Amino acid sequence: MSTEQTHPRQHRHPGPGDFPGPRAVQDRDYRQARTVAMVVDLLRGNDIRCAITGDWAASALGGPPADHSVEIAVTPIDAPRACSVLVSAGLRTVGCLDGRTHRFFADDHRVHVVFRRPGGGEVTAALLEHTVRGRIGDTTVPVLAPTEVMIDKLDALGRQRHDFVPLVQIARQLAEHVDWAAVAAATAQSRYARVFLGLLADLSITSDSVCVGGRGRPHLPAADTAGPRATPAAGRARAASRICHRLGGSGRFRIPALRIPILLQENRSRDVYPHR
Length: 276
Hints:
Layout: H1 3-6, H2 22-45, E1 51-53, H3 55-60, E2 70-73, H4 79-88, E3 92-96, E4 101-106, E5 109-114, H5 125-129, E6 132-136, E7 139-143, H6 146-155, H7 165-174, H8 180-186, H9 191-202, H10 222-225, H11 232-246, H12 260-263
Parallel strand pairs: 2-5
Antiparallel strand pairs: 1-2, 3-4, 4-5, 6-7
Helix pairs in contact: 6-8, 9-11
């Protein structure tokens, strides 16, 4: 019998050395910014119209820093030529895995050439004509308009992807530049998008007029909205019950992945989940 079987290895809590330091994070961000600039310069140098989308678009527009793959939107007609240009420049290709993006690696950084939007529609020339200018590092790049960025973000929500925490951060920082009525109209078929827009209204990031694609709010008794019971815990409880209602719940909060405590910037206490 081996030593590991007789003496199981104890769990070790991560220490400071297990996380990247400020300099390592700064170097990583610098290399990713250079990758974005390189890809955009390659495509534009070959007369391929493109725009940054996804997390990097939100970051370029003033949102939180991005640490995911670089997403470049091109039209389906230009997608094969864009792939040829990137392969000729030395990027490693992974292929088209989901029917909407071609995936590459530039060193250790992932690059996605997107020709179909998360909602199913194609990237059109008209969409790329209405881009805005954003900054990534020291480079100015074309970026999808803030409203289009939020539409794509909400269309990407689904059963397997419904973490609202990063979306709340993006929405809070881009709120003044987004046409929320257009976002609500474009994503009205998604129940996850309707819930998220309702949550933004609850957090006073947007107005109630765009809440849940035109649906009204659930009726709440006056005692829950005013008076001595209007405590932070009661507010968290109301937000959780509203989300249950908008997702068609039957009273029990069944979606812990929404992570309501973090969204409301509170700790993970059990009073956040009043029905459990």
